[in-house]
């Protein structure tokens, strides 16, 4: 067998004891880091460089040659060069014909160029098989071996064989290749490492907006109102008292917003009489970020728990309790235990604890490694059954906590309702509609629709 | 090379630039979702359908043909049809001969049919190579791309080659194939998605039973007894006080039950003088659900912590402390600090905190992604050494908390011991036996037995 | 094709319906467990044993032959024998020629022998292709199927093809092979299961040392000092009060130590004017254990939170508050609310809660399964931006908490500063230097250096 036909050779499994040589164009940080890692994994590595002289930073076992010479030695060539300098590859087109070119480049901005770097490379060297890979891995992570961020390497390319060769290299380096399809996916792969929590944007902006609204609402009622009408300085409420009103309100509203799209979808399906029409776009997007919404709600709930538990060590609370006790002692009276009050107080605390406990459980099952270990039925059981139970408990917690204020006219300062009353609107609406939806006369047609039955088959035409 | 010999072709790696065509029988939800995903991953897809007309819901790039025509175009045929309609495949037996048939069906109940759907399919089309796969993935998850539940696809089949082809497809779709062996495993694979936390059943039923017992036990002693004999209404204890007795009791008992089977196993091995005989079945099962027992115990412990931390904000507790302070003030006396009491109170709280902290640590290391990153020695160190330390700390916490009541006759209402005394039986027994087992004169023969030595070799014959 | 040339056959994919026979030398625990698992996964298994008689413990479907006979039946031979008995393999060298020998042995101590067991095996049987694998899996885990510890199987060997065959077997058993390169890696692979949290050693020893120092420092100032000068017995402070000073001090110092090496690295790079020189060894090591340092800090912070939240249920605290209230009542005076004090108290509590919340968030993102699902930019955003925010909040929490004591001479007992003042040194230093580093006039050259620019190019020659 001819040793020089390296391109096809990479696929023949009979070469004994040796992996195929890999060529790396470019001796920058990432090229060097990748070279080191490949040599460790048993690949002979040859660097292609403008100045074919060995640098002290390059791995010792690697050869450094001119681009043309290096390319001839290997079937797979990794292009560790920035996109701006790709045009030097055009003159090498003949040598690169039939080779596998691995584009590992990243951009500085999302959609910086009209076409992806990998597609641009494929246009420049039409005879080569371009594969996009490795762009999600950082040089530092490769070098230090602590791949704390992702071990996943997205791979795409039009040539299945070439992609397979690259995926084998990825696996040999201890990373996990994920085939993303044809080179059309390169744009998305190049954008991926530039994204900053895209799925979290909507939940976070929404909660920031709601936080601001409720913060100023509470500020007006709890700090400004007493300052104007009673001349009392409660400005220090800004640190704990007001956040501890805003947090539970947001936790409850966001939790309800997790279950609202499901309820809306059921209503839409019932109205249309078919499941074979797409939901409106906003509903689709909303459904896809339910997990994130729920986790943001859990964050608010956790902070609420902490804020609540520190109540007894707040200096203001200690002063208030102490003053009350002293005034009782001075007035020489002891109030008897109010059983109703004890019941109410203990009930809402207990409901809150159980609701929070289930909420944390939901959060734990949404950890990727946990959700990978449950089957679909178990996942739905937790996220749907336990989820609604959590919503019921948390809503009940809020109702029992503040129910007495609904009928108390003094709680309507400036004719505005108490902030926590506003927080009950969405969860109560969701629970009432859900309650209606599980009535047999409504649940039955809905189940039929979800199994594929259509009330009005012309819709699906 | 003949393009029509698609069956063998799938294995030759030289087909350039193209994946092998995959055929899907059935245009239902799952068939369509799978088709979409496969086209995304670069597979040409052809649908086999009774009415060979394109629906607007099918992927645009997919062909729709009659079953027979579609089958001829591909080596791999995915049967996205319910088991009841499988018999239409029998007349196609000739065309399907030598093809890879992928059974993706699920049932509605565990063990619904005597044989698995995949085996039934293999009987119907004897010449085909049947592979079971994809039944654990949901259509919705495939479509939305949010594979929050499992990415794992169990694969089984009698033909290694056919299985390999299917596993390659699974991998190309970004899922993780898990080879489960021959087609005999299909029954188990089909039951898997119908299971609802099978490993959790025993721990949860056990803890529900114990919860009910201790709840009514405490109810009798703490609410009914004072109501009858002292005419006091402590019914509101149901919300927090009693649960906060039941939770720590259950946490301690369940934690001890995690370590009891290990101790029993050691005793059995010592008695038998060999490790080469199977443990009784109940012990084996018990050992396999220790992790779940421990996590349920952790759940009870967490709720106990929350219930304890809210004590100072309970209206009843505030009233009690305030009454006590007022009565002191009215009686014009100040009690000095009771150092012993301060020591006891601080000690049991500190022991509880440390025990709970270690318990949470144990819980974190049992997360799949964490336990995958520790080696066997580290895992055993955490689960065994730290586990026993947790048990010791939690038992000490309970002993210090209530030790004073053991000798106090007034705590034996109705001649019954205090509930928390009952909770100490199992953990103390486990700790005492474990303490005996680490004595050198007992530890040495046990270690020998575990390394393979037999006191009485005839047993293993 | 000749059925007996089993060695090359393993690679031809055309053998229908059957996996290749695997031979296992040794019928001990691990050999049997592996045999069982392989038969389950469809491999014919033949055991090689001195006494070629079937034991009741061996899998029923397995053949038991003499070593020589068994070896001839398979291309892959698993050596489930301890290293001390390897020399019996030397006479079999001819039969083993060209076979794949899988060394699965472990030692009892790290670096027990000068060369790894696998290399020793390769010397004994020079004609065989030795592959190291399976040593990280335990027999018990294989048998019970609960692979709670690692599913990862490290594989290394000089022959790529042989390694591939072993990795295929590993995958077929439902485990994850990780290629570690040539047989030189065997030493490290054999040491791996003997390690006990090597990356955690430094953080844990460091924190133990600091804990001891601060514990005795606080003991001297808070217990011994009042005992000597005021004759007060505060010995019970050992249980909660002192640990609750030591824990936050350690959490803050360790958190600052996570960010100190990054700051030092920036200073070194600025001073050298290049990033192309290695950092000193201690800095490299420090940087690699930052995650562990951070998690230990989080553990201390969590215990601090628990210790703080139980304050109101401590008997000492209840006594103190009650005494104070009684004395107020007896003196017939009510103190008005001190707004400044309320502000300070609420502020440091709120800062602490937010800091702890972010800290927990950092901890969650360091879970392997979570960090695998974020890209590099998101990981850096969380660990760097949110990390510094956490450090700022925690430092502010400490400053606000105890700022008043700095100027109070009575807090300098024995002319020693309060312990928590010592804890502020490192975090304040880190924050000040970091603040200087983000000044444009310093940030700009630093960014240039990190992008590859060199002030003094001769360094990199």
UniProtKB/TrEMBL annotation, chains A, B, C:
Any GO BP: copper ion import
Transmembrane segments: 204-229, 249-271, 292-313, 347-365, 386-407, 419-442
Catalytic reactions on record: 2 Cu(+) + NADP(+) + H(+) = 2 Cu(2+) + NADPH; 2 Fe(2+) + NADP(+) + H(+) = 2 Fe(3+) + NADPH
Keyword field: Copper, Endosome, FAD, Flavoprotein, Ion transport, Iron, Iron transport, Membrane, Metal-binding, Oxidoreductase, Transmembrane, Transmembrane helix, Transport
InterPro entries (UniProt xref): Fe3_Rdtase_TM_dom (IPR013130), NAD(P)-bd_dom_sf (IPR036291), P5C_Rdtase_cat_N (IPR028939), STEAP_metalloreductase (IPR051267)
GO CC annotations, alphabetized: endosome membrane; plasma membrane
Membrane topology type: Multi-pass membrane protein
Pyrroline-5-carboxylate reductase catalytic N-terminal domain ranges (all copies): 21-107
Record Pfam families: F420_oxidored, Ferric_reduct
Residue ranges of domain Ferric oxidoreductase in the record: 249-383
Cofactors (names): heme b; FAD
Coiled-coil regions listed in the entry: none
Localization of this protein: Endosome membrane
PANTHER family in alphabetical order: DUDULIN-RELATED, METALLOREDUCTASE STEAP4
Family statement drawn from the similarity comment of this UniProt entry: Belongs to the STEAP family.
Protein name, entry field: STEA4 Metalloreductase
Species the sequence originates in: Todus mexicanus (Puerto Rican tody)
Gene: Steap4
């Amino acid at each position: 067998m001819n040793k020089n036909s390296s391109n096809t050779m990479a696929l023949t499994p009979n070469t004994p004891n040796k992996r195929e040589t890999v060529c790396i164009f470019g001796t920058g940080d990432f090229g060097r880091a990748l070279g080191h890692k490949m040599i460790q994994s048993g690949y002979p590595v040859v660097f292609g460089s403008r100045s074919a002289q060995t640098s002290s930073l390059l791995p010792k076992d690697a050869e450094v040659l001119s681009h043309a010479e290096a390319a001839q030695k290997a079937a797979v060539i990794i292009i560790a060069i920035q996109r701006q300098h790709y045009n030097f590859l055009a003159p090498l087109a003949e040598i690169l014909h039939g080779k596998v070119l691995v584009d590992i480049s990243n951009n500085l901005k999302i959609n910086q160029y009209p076409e992806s770097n990998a597609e641009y490379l494929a246009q420049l060297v039409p005879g080569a098989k371009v594969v996009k890979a490795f762009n999600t891995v950082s040089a530092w992570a490769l070098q230090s071996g602590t791949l704390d961020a992702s071990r996943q390497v997205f791979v795409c390319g039009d040539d299945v064989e070439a992609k397979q060769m690259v995926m084998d290299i990825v696996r040999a380096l201890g990373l996990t290749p994920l085939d993303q399809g044809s080179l059309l996916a390169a744009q998305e792969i190049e954008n991926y490492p530039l994204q900053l929590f895209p799925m979290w944007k909507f939940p976070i902006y929404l909660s920031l907006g709601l936080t601001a609204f409720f913060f100023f609402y509470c500020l007006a009622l709890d700090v400004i109102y007493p300052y104007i009408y009673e001349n009392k300085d409660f400005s220090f409420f800004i640190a704990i008292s007001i956040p501890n009103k805003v947090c539970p309100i947001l936790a409850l509203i966001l939790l309800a917003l997790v279950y609202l799209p499901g309820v809306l979808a059921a209503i839409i399906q019932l109205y249309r009489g078919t499941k074979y029409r797409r939901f409106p776009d906003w509903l689709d997007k909303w459904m896809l970020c339910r997990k994130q919404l729920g986790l943001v709600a859990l964050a608010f709930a956790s902070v609420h728990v902490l804020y609540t538990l520190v109540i007894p060590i707040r200096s203001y609370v200690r002063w208030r309790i102490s003053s009350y006790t002293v005034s009782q002692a001075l007035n020489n009276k002891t109030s008897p235990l109010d059983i109703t009050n004890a019941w109410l107080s203990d009930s809402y605390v207990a409901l809150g604890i159980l609701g929070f406990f289930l909420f944390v459980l939901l959060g734990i099952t949404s950890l990727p490694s946990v959700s990978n270990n449950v089957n679909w039925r178990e996942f739905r059981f937790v996220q749907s059954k336990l989820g609604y139970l959590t919503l019921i408990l948390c809503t009940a917690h809020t109702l029992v906590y503040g129910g007495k204020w609904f009928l108390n006219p003094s709680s309507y300062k400036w004719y505005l309702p108490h902030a926590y009353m506003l927080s009950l609107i969405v969860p109560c609406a969701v629970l009432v509609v859900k309650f209606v939806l599980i009535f047999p006369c409504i649940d039955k047609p809905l189940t039929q629709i979800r199994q594929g039955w259509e009330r009005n088959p012309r819709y699906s035409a």
